[in-house]
Amino acid sequence: MTGAEIFVECLKREGVKEFFGYPGGAVIPLFDELYKHWEEFRFILVRHEQAAAHAADGYARATGKVGVCIATSGPGATNLTTGIATAYMDSVPIVAFTGQVRTAMIGSDAFQEADVTGITRPITKHNYLVKDVEDLARIIKEAFYIARTGRPGPVLVDVPVDIGLAETEFDYPEKVELRGYKPNYKGHPLQIKKVAKAIEESERPLLYVGGGVVISGAHEEVRQLAEKANIPVTTTLMALGTFPPDHPLYLGMPGMHGTRYANMAFIECDLIIAVGARFDDRVTGKIDAFAPHAKIAHIDIDPAAISKNVEVHIPVVGDAKLILRELLPLVKPRPRNSWNDQIDEWKRKWPLTYRNSDSVVKPQYVVEQIYEATKDRETIIATEVGQNQMWTAQYYKFHRPRTLLTSGGLGTMGYGFPASIGAQAGRPDALVIDIAGDGSIQMNIQELATVVQHGLPIKIAILNNGYLGMVRQWQELFWGRRYSAVDIAVQPDFVKLAEAYGIKGMRIEHPSEVRDAIEEALKEPGPVLMDFRIEREENVFPMVPAGKALHEMIGGLA
Amino acid sequence: MKHTIAALVENRFGVLARIAGLFSARGFNIDSLTVGETEDPTISRMTIVVEGDDRVLEQVMKQLNKLVDVIKVSDISSQKFVDRELVLIKVNAPRSRRSEIMEIAEVFRAKIVDISPNTLTIEATGNEDKIKAIIGMLKPFGIKELARTGRVAMLREFRGEV
To answer: Fewer C-beta neighbours within 10 Å, C or N terminus of chain A?
Structure first.
């Protein structure tokens, strides 16, 4: 077989059906081979390589499978990097294939050459430059294996043109043998016992749930643990959807734009059981003032995540689901106590709230109405980054894991729309909505052509305030209202723009039109772009100012 | 405090770059790093000396362990080990002072490996203290050039219990 034939055969063996990419000189051999198998795949041709990486990422988050993207050498590969870094920060399994110049030309500054394994080394879980066609099948097998196992992440395979053309015997290894890579799934029984004991001894426990619970599929176990011992639960941005939003034990999201009660729970608790969360600075606030009274138990598959930002007293390394299953029978039922009462009081006292208006569209209202209109359907929400992301996290109620796609770690503007493309390709049955800002949407707006070409009925809701809103909010609150370089009111007519791409565009300027507009958009079989003209200077509250402790929140009081 | 880390890694291109890149990306400072093939030609051994408190060290070890090409990592400075470094020192040696320098070299069991009318080049091996000492002794003569290999280290097999 040629290298190109091996490439296609390996994709089939890995069960890849949908994937995303953009051709170029160095990958013509691979695309030529694909052409012969066109009907066996659903290849989505994007309009910018960054979108291919985000789409593979959105596909992976929405389906739980490995997302695949492909780009050419040099600029094709460098355009992928933002998407790869996004996936890396949020532990998303993707395999990225890049073309490379001929093996003999490597290092000669050839046309469209870049040191792609060098560039992507710090943003991939692992990467490969294929130097011999003999290694290609093994490398692809390993790439998928490494991407999806342990703490998942992106793996890049750089394939020089001549490797695609070279011939060898095809031999797809049955098993992967990597002496330097052996993820540990089973938690240490003694450590698990210690967690059970800590829960028993605790007066004020708190479950702090992160994206690892989504990856591991441990949401059922989390709920059982919470209910068995009456432990309040806070879920990070990455874990929204893992715990029933209306559950009496639920505290919502913690951190910079989390609920006051989740943050107060961190400050007052005497035990944190962290599951698949990594004590990110957006969650902890000022680290020295974080959880001053708490013992910390940390369940995580990545040993390096433990005691990285905070000192952990009971580390348990392994898979969240397996560990919680071992833990559950050891945990004694704990009756409700004054801690639960205290939390209920905080929840009554500080509900998440905003002031609605009769005259101007409030973004929170739009998100609430999107939720109301979609709550009875299988819905996947993607967001961009900034205010749109935080309002969505605060006001959309996520009932199931893998229904929110958002760039948490890297905070990539322009992520949501292409991620929706991936999600819709992987979940054709689901309703996919990208909640965007007018800044973010313009970072990958060229993908409107992709959704049209591939018949992807994605709905886009732009919360349009003519500002780079989150930066403007910081400037307003902490930089003396000096609105430096954030006014983007000069923008295209989004309705006309949608129409120019051949899709339905809508402008919504009054609160009374919001719900009807959403319903109308949802009835439309194809993609729709909704341009919600919202209050220009609306802020995301409450907020922990940068460098402050979690109990020093401002704003958002009823 | 200084720690000596021994790492067994796949003997493949790009592995050194991965490790060096990890250190710079995570803001860890490398004091010295040596690398060479082991008795198994598919495996290289790296000896990395890092400066930092226990928390830094713990992160370094964990991050190294995460690399797919890293097979085994151990902090050998917490155990009994032997370490050696090799140094080449080119020192000013006019005829009048040559014997004095050669005497010093002899004390350190160092070798003269090159000679010219005005210089001597000395090869010395030893642990850090010894290398420091010989450099200190030769400094007054005027060191023209200095090349150090960085530390290589290995655990002691006999731990002293009889």
So the answer is: C
Once rounded to an integer, what is the mean pLDDT over residues A536-540? 98
Which pLDDT value is given to residue B24? 87
Cβ of B55 and A307 within 8 Å?
yes
Which range has the worst mean pLDDT, A207-216, A444-453, A549-558?
Answer: A549-558
**Helix (H), strand (E) counts: chain B:** 4, 9
CA of A364: how far to CAs of A14, A229, A239, A514, A535, in Å?
42, 34, 20, 12, 10
Domain B2-79 belongs in CATH node 3.40.640.10: no
pTM for the complete prediction?
Answer: 0.95
Residue of B nearest to A304 (CA): B62
Report the C-alpha gap between A306 and A315 in whole angstroms. 7
- The whole-number average pLDDT for the span A75-92 is 98
Closest residue of chain B to A150, computed from CA coordinates:
B66
Q: Where are the domains of chain B?
A: 2-79, 83-152
Identify all chain B residues contacting A178, using CB atoms and an 8 Å cutoff.
68
For chain A, what percentages of helix, strand and coil (3-state, to nearest 5) are there?
Answer: 45, 15, 40
Mean pLDDT computed over every residue of chain A: 97
Report all structural domains of chain A as residue ranges with CATH numbers, in order of start.
3-165 (3.40.50.970), 189-349 (3.40.50.1220), 363-533 (3.40.50.970)
| pLDDT above 80: residue B40 | yes
Residue with tokens 């609105």: A483
The B residues from 55 to 94 touching A (CB cutoff 8 Å) are: 55, 58-59, 62-63, 65-71
Structure tokens at B81: 């080990």
| Superfamily designation of domain B83-152 | ACT-like. Chain A, domain 2 (3.30.70.1150)
Q: What 3-state class would DSSP assign to B72?
A: strand
Query: Is there a contact between A308 and B59 if contact means CB atoms under 8 Å apart?
Result: yes
For chain B, the farthest-separated pair of C-alpha atoms sits apart, in whole angstroms, at 57
* Interface contacts A/B by beta carbons within 8 Å: 35
Alpha carbon B44 to chain centroid, angstroms? 16
State the Cα–Cα distance between residues A90 and A53, nearest whole angstrom: 13
Kind and range of the H or E run holding A9:
helix A3-13
| B142 touches B118 (CB < 8 A) | no
Token match 């949401």: residue? Answer: A219
The pairing of beta strand B111-115 with beta strand B119-126: antiparallel
Give the containing element (helix H, strand E) for A287. Answer: none
- ipTM of model over 0.95: no
